[in-house]
Design a protein that fits this description.
With about 210 residues, this protein is α+β, with helices and mostly antiparallel strands. The chain is globular.
C-alpha cells in the first residue's frame, strides 16, 4: 500500500497536475484502488442515486482493448497504473430502494421520511425525459470524477482526465450494455514520471458576479 498520503488539503488542490507520462513500474493494488474509489463515491448526487459506475482498466489485456479506443492518449494508457472509465448507469433508479432502505437501517433516515420520499422520487424520475435524466446523471458523474482525482492525489498519485476517446464503442468493448451505461470520461492514474505543467486560471473577479 502506498504510504505517501498527502494530508494537507491545500496541497492536494494546488499540487494537482494533469499528468500524461507515468512511471510504468508503479502499480496500485486493488485494495488501495478500492479505497480511492470509496473516497470518491462520497461525492454528492441527485436524490442520492449514485449513478456513477467504474471500470478499472489495469491489466495488460484491458489496456490492449483500450489502446485503439484512445488513439490520442497512448502515453497515458501505456504508462499509467490504471485507466478508470467512468460511466453513468441509466438504470440507477433501480437502486433507490436499496439505498434508502440502507439509510434507514443505518439510522441516517427515519422510515417515515423514506416512505414519503421514495414514491415522490420514483414518480418524478419515471416521467423525466431521457435527455434530462442523462444530464442530471452527467452532473453527478462530474462531481464523482473530480473527487476521484482529489482522492488519488491524497493517496500520493496523479491523474489525467481524458475526454477524447471512442465513446460510442467503449461500453461494448468491455462487455457492458451500451444502452444502459453512458460513458463520461477516462481518468488515468499512477505516479507521475515528470512534474507536469502548471496552468493559468482566470481571476475570480472576471468570472464572478456579486448580487
Amino acid at each position: 500500500m502506498n504510504q505517501t498520503k498527502i494530508n494537507d488539503f491545500n496541497e492536494i488542490i494546488t499540487g494537482r497536475r494533469s499528468i500524461r507520462n507515468y512511471d510504468p513500474s508503479v502499480k496500485i493494488s486493488r485494495e488501495e484502488m478500492t479505497e480511492i474509489l470509496k473516497d470518491a463515491t462520497l461525492a454528492p448526487s441527485s436524490v442520492n442515486l449514485q449513478p456513477w459506475r467504474f471500470v478499472v482498466i489495469d491489466s495488460p489485456e484491458g489496456k490492449e482493448t483500450l489502446t485503439p479506443l484512445a488513439k490520442f492518449n497512448q502515453t497515458q494508457v501505456k504508462t499509467s497504473s490504471a485507466v478508470i472509465a467512468v460511466f453513468v448507469d441509466m438504470n440507477s433508479l433501480d437502486y433507490a430502494d436499496e439505498i434508502y432502505n440502507k439509510a434507514v437501517d443505518e439510522g441516517y433516515m427515519p422510515a417515515e421520511v423514506r416512505d414519503r420520499q421514495l414514491p415522490a422520487i420514483k414518480g418524478l424520475l419515471d416521467t423525466m425525459p431521457v435527455d434530462q435524466f442523462r444530464e442530471m446523471n452527467l452532473i453527478d458523474a462530474g462531481l464523482v470524477s473530480m473527487q476521484l482525482m482529489l482522492a488519488a492525489r491524497a493517496h500520493g498519485y496523479d491523474t489525467n482526465p481524458i475526454g477524447g476517446y471512442e465513446k460510442d464503442q467503449i461500453a461494448e468493448a468491455y462487455g457492458m450494455d451500451k444502452g444502459r451505461y453512458y460513458p463520461v470520461m477516462l481518468i488515468s492514474i499512477g505516479k507521475a514520471a515528470d512534474e507536469g505543467y502548471k496552468s493559468v486560471r482566470l481571476p475570480v473577479e472576471s468570472i464572478t458576479e456579486w448580487k
